[in-house]
């Protein structure tokens, strides 16, 4: 499927472009159009999706036209390209495209990144105030069209095939990536579509709640605001495993919150599957919001409110480590290290230590040398508090009793960071920032 473009006009800038100066990092941004006919799928024979994840799907046999956007970050010098393209299933939970693509691992590692507007909300947004591409810049994006999310799986396949033909790049591997709502779509892709298309060489699902989405939703679109407050936790409950018989790696990297959701469908590591769980974390953190809020302010001209007291342990360095390991797994056959899982009781409750912090799992300095109780326990009812978790600082006298002075605390934080690095859960570039962040939290508590 040939790509069209570049996309120009309108405001003169791509929606959701990174805050970082790509040129300074040796990268350039392109916006391209992907257009054609897409098919939709159903479960073969009308079967329900099975808990084992080995779903049998078939194309329905009808197609519909589509026209969507790909936003591409690529090394300016083809010689700097590492051979791997990341194809992102952009998340539309917020009512517009959410995607990353500008992390240190991606830009320092020489990847190409392709963010795909795969779902209808990404173009049309949600009422009453649409924030999708067409509303954000009608001149630039007004020609985009989407027949509905039933067709998203084939659109994603076509994007993967187009990514293998990026002009001037020697593409050797294509990895699919998606987070949260997009991870649920990728879960369905892994279980039902990849066996038919073999379009990807590996998959990275982050903050995945353990349920692949339905193949057939009709005109229904994602709208987090419709989740009833009293049933938010029940909605985010895992119902199926991910198949591990594809012959390509599937990697899941979860916070404590999704580990809780996945407990009933937890599966062991295999030759082609990895599951990492990070203790003391939640779906959203202060750090992840710090990445999102300035981009939101730039693109929408308003502040994105951030609640007080939400989780303060970042998943971002672990995501970068997971991507690093996945690329090596795909390109070199070097499997990622397995990591300890979060400890649970038999009935699915997180086992917590004397401070109230989860035991087991990947343990970053803020958890292994704590000055606060960070967890996935929400501050109140409803879907947003559920995603945000909580952070409760220790009293200053408790911190002093635990660690003595700042020098002793710093040594504890450094030891924790070095152990996470040695285990492969974080990369060397993130060790010093993790130590500095932990020390800053210490200073904020002790004054």
Q: What does this protein look like?
A:
The strands form 2 sheets. Strands 1-2-4-3-5-6-7-8 form an 8-stranded mixed sheet, with helices on both faces. The termini are far apart. The chain has 15 helices and 10 strands. It has a domain of 226 residues. With 447 residues, it is α/β, with parallel strands linked by helices. The mean pLDDT is 96. It is globular, with a radius of gyration of 21 Å. Strand 7, helix 8 and strand 8 form a beta-alpha-beta unit. Helix 14 runs antiparallel to helix 15. The longest helix is centred in the middle third of the chain and has 17 residues.
Quick description:
The protein is an alpha/beta fold and 447 residues long. Helices cover 32% and strands 18% of the residues. It has a domain at 1-226.
Features:
single chain; 447 residues; alpha/beta; eight-stranded mixed beta sheet; two-stranded antiparallel sheet; 15 helices; globular
